[in-house]
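User: Predict the structure for this protein chain, please.
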Amino acid sequence: MTSPTLTRPELTAADRCDRCGAAAQVRAILSSGGELLFCGHHAREYEGKLKEMAAEIQR
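Assistant: Here is the predicted structure, written as structure tokens:
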């Protein structure tokens, strides 16, 4: 018996950046289980901090 794997849906045009509201291109999954969505600009701006927090970054 295999355990089910939880997957997050692909980003769509309806997904918006949590910082500015532009179309989301990146999902950052936090170690706490939460997630943040970013446009390309804000993903680049916060990438270093997200890596420090050990967030999983999905493009």
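The two ends are 31 Å apart (CA to CA).
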